[in-house]
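User: Can you recover a sequence for this backbone? Please restate the input before giving your answer.

Assistant: Of course. Working from this structure:
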């Protein structure tokens, strides 16, 4: 079967203190966007699990398939082959590898006839990568997801939160721009200054957008700061970085405006994509 592995942007990303397991406590609103990889996932009877990405044991899609098989006794001995048509930039803060892993979990749940709920698949994804649980729910429901902990605690935004987010929405189209530098997640977190107080109870959707990793990433890579400034000059409705970078994004009110902004970003050496939020576009 073929499944779309939708990327994400972090419409908000708050970083709190370090946990006992070494990860930071996070709180983030994750939005699924129309930019996606296409995966062909084939169930096989030989017990082998493989993909053609070339990442070997680091391939999150392969790790996701193995984690799902390990969780479900009825999947014992089952195999899978995954073919990926890659569109999401690698290491760009858009959750490319995690998006593929989430899509594999969803596809194999059907292909292997496991009958797991999206919430159970998200729980399985927590063992694969911090962004995987949120992307399982975001892809399945096409809706904003609140991610907490290191990423293992996820839920859909409720109706009131979605309404608040909609009222503060900067535009229906997004321009994604990558300045061509690789941003190390570990280095960015090491440079980040966490918030002093812990995450407050409840969630205020009107507090978005914010990314607590942005200042650290810009200090490490001035190209990211330049791309953010260029988005604003080009006319984007706000600009921020997704995840730990290096992709930045700004909003536009129409596809024509987004295309014009993207052309300006192309001219300063960024690689660009146009995208829409699945939630806003209804896709």
């Amino acid at each position: 079967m073929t499944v779309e592995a939708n990327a994400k942007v972090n419409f908000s990303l708050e970083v709190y203190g370090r946990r006992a397991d070494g990860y930071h406590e996070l709180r983030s609103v994750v939005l699924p966007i129309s930019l996606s990889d296409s995966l062909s996932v084939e169930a096989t009877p030989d017990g082998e699990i493989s993909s053609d990405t070339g990442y070997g044991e680091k391939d999150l899609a392969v790790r996701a398939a193995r984690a799902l098989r390990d969780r479900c006794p009825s999947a014992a001995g089952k195999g899978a082959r995954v073919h990926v048509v890659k569109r999401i930039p690698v290491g760009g803060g858009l959750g490319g590898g995690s998006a593929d892993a989430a899509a594999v979990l969803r596809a194999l749940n059907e292909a292997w006839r496991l009958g797991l709920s999206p919430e159970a698949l998200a729980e399985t994804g927590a063992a694969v990568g911090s962004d995987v649980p949120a992307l399982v729910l975001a892809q399945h429901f096409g809706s904003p997801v609140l991610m907490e902990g290191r990423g293992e605690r996820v839920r859909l935004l409720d109706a009131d939160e979605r309404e608040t987010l909609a009222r503060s929405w900067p535009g229906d189209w997004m321009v994604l721009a990558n300045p061509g530098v690789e941003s190390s997640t570990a280095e960015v977190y090491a440079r980040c200054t966490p918030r002093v107080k812990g995450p407050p109870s409840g969630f205020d959707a009107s507090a978005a957008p914010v990314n607590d990793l942005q200042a650290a990433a810009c200090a490490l890579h001035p190209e990211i700061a330049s791309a953010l400034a260029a988005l604003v000059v080009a006319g984007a409705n706000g600009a921020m970085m997704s995840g730990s970078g290096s992709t930045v994004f700004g909003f536009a009110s129409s596809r024509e405006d987004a295309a014009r902004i993207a052309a300006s970003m192309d001219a300063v050496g960024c690689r660009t994509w146009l995208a829409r939020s699945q939630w806003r576009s209804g896709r």
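That completes the design. The chain has two domains: 2-158, 164-281.
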